[in-house]
Design brief:
Helix content is 3%, strand content 58%. By secondary structure, the chain is mainly beta.
Length: 249
């Protein structure tokens, strides 16, 4: 029988209880909506520590042809892989959901899909060879490996499928400016490619710039969508003791 994932890596420094990051999502010159990501709880059990992360994704009111509301919640191991995921999306005033339970001892992911949290329409099982990410834990995985200095192929379960995300962590140091900060921010960049279609129609190539410090907070990202590309920009943050590092150039 397969063994539970061993904690061979030290606990992540990017996972911090109480962190809250809010991003504006912009398409060309049109602001589409906000993504708010919170790390809300830490739980210790024998042999593991997990953090609960939650993302609220909402389009702004009165945006033409866009009415999007979704909630992603992930239970993330302290060494940054998924142990559980629930995704909810509002469709015509009804919330559809997908719920994944990662059972690494049995090399499987049990999935339930339905409506209103309790009405299960179908169940499926996927078989996996090792630890995986989900649509939200990928966000923290990229932060964790920002300084890796190598290409990585990251397996994940997204929209009930096994997919891969290819990320080139080449440690490119740069500086960026955002409306919420009145000085250039010291950042490290990376780029990659997602082989799945996600929220807002995100798919294909992306690049990002995260803070050049231990917290590795995402500052700006560009992501391709079906009709072009969107920009995610940090609007506000709550993280004890953290402020965006100032670029020295």
């Amino acid at each position: 029988m397969a063994q539970s994932p061993a904690h061979t890596d030290p606990p992540s420094h990017v996972l911090m209880e109480g962190e809250e990051l809010t991003y504006n999502v912009r398409y060309a010159f049109l602001d589409l909506g906000q993504i708010r990501i919170k790390t809300i709880a830490r739980e210790r059990k024998p042999g593991m520590t997990t953090f609960s992360g939650i993302a609220y994704i909402d389009s702004y009111k009165n945006v033409p042809l866009v009415d999007l509301h979704a909630i992603f919640q992930s239970k993330i191991d302290s060494t940054v892989f998924s142990r559980g995921f629930t995704g909810k999306m509002k469709q015509d005033d009804v919330w559809d959901f997908s719920r994944y339970t990662f059972d690494y001892d049995r090399r499987m992911v049990a999935m339930e899909m339905g409506q209103k949290d309790t009405v299960i329409a179908r169940r499926e099982t996927l078989w996996v060879d090792g630890t995986c990410q989900d649509g939200l834990s990928l966000f923290f995985y990229a932060r964790q490996h920002l300084f890796a200095g190598r290409d990585m192929n990251v397996p994940a379960i997204v929209t009930e499928k096994k997919v891969n995300t290819f990320i080139r962590f080449d440690k490119r140091r740069d500086d960026v400016e955002v409306d919420a900060v009145d000085y250039p921010i010291d950042v490290v960049g990376f780029e990659g490619n997602a082989e799945f279609v996600g929220i807002f129609g995100l798919t294909g190539g992306f690049d990002g710039w995260f803070s050049n410090d231990e917290a590795r907070v995402p500052i700006v990202a560009h992501m391709k969508v079906i009709l072009g590309s969107v920009t995610l920009e940090l609007m506000s943050w709550k993280r004890p003791g953290w402020a965006p590092p100032r670029a020295t150039n």
